Amino acid sequence: MAKRTTTRSVQQKPAHRHGKGRCVAILKKLSAYIDDELPGTLCEELRKHLGACPNCEEFVASLRQTVALCQHQPAPALSQAERARMRNDILRAARPR
Ligand SMILES: [Zn+2]
To answer: Which tops the pLDDT comparison, 6 or 48?
Structure first.
């Protein structure tokens, strides 16, 4: 039975299931671009998603270097180990629990 949802003035929490749908798609793309500069379109997508998704926002915020890539700033050179660690973190976050 479906309950009718009424619009409330109370701020609704965004429906977010980490490890499902958009999140996974975003995180996987992110991991694919660790070695490169993020293309503008992906940046847009990423920012939009992050704006609506506290979990991902928090996660990506911890990947400061990723954000730096996204802003097309001259990012500090990442060592192979750093890239590997970032990719690992992302894939772990993207894995369904
Ligand atoms: Zn998310």
So the answer is: 48
